[in-house]
Structure formats: C-alpha cells, structure tokens
Amino acid sequence: SSVVLWPSNNTFLGETFSFDTLHKATNGFDSSCVIAYGQSGSFYKGVLDRGTEIVVKRIYTTKMMELYLNEVEVLRKASHARLISLLGHCTETSKFLVYRYMPFGDLASMLQTKGMYSKMCKCNPKIALDWITRLKIATGVAEGLVYLHHECSPSIIHR
Fold it and tell me: E strands, 3-158, where?
C-alpha cells in the first residue's frame, strides 16, 4: 500500500479549525447531524459558536486520503461563484474539510420532485421546481462546467 503524506503547507486550505470546534459544532459528530455519505467520507451539518452554518466532511481511511488530497488540490486551484466554498480544514485526529452550508441542499435533491426534502433542505416535497427555476439551475451548472473545463489552468475534468 502507498503512503500518503499530508501537505506541510496548509495555507490554501483556509481557516484551521480545531477538532474540538468541529466536534462541538456537530454535536459530537452525532448521527442526527449526518446529511450525506460520500465516496470518501461522511458529511455533517454543524453550527460554529459564531453562528456560521457549516458542512464538515470527515475522511476515514488512508485509501480515501488520496481522494481527499485530490479534492483539496481541485479546491485550491478552482475558485468560482458556482463552486462550493471551502472555509477551512482540520488535521488533528482525523482529516476534515469545512465547507459553506448550502441551505437549499444539493442539486440532485432539488431537481427531483419527490426528493426535495432532506435534512439540508426544508422544501416542500410535493412542490416541483418550475421550468424557469430549472433553466436558471442548468445555466448555473453550465457556467461552473465552463469554468472548470476551459477557464481553470490546468483544466479540471470531473466525474
């Protein structure tokens, strides 16, 4: 197995959060705060003492660390209004990325008529998005993709 080293210069990772701060913000990483399970870890909704709502991505294994470092590299290179904002990180006991909370949830949930309600989104699951709103979302996604594929240097091709 390969050894993945943590970068010694973390300045591009935003604010450095303590484990205690993230632990407190997520009620001890309580299962009620889990909003999603991703390929490389779990996502928790949290609130910092100063009232800022955040999403904490917790990375679990060394194998996933490679994916984590790839994600960090993408976030370091890419900065665009249509991409989620990385607020900071923590590397004390586990690896964590801290993102800006998106009050309306993830894109997939918003586009599905029956899947609009989640812990992140308090939308009415019986109301579908109108076509004008869907067009605005598609336009925003296209702007983000154009940035990643053509304006970023080097280009970032996603899954």
Answer: 15-16, 34-37, 41-47, 53-59, 86-90, 95-100
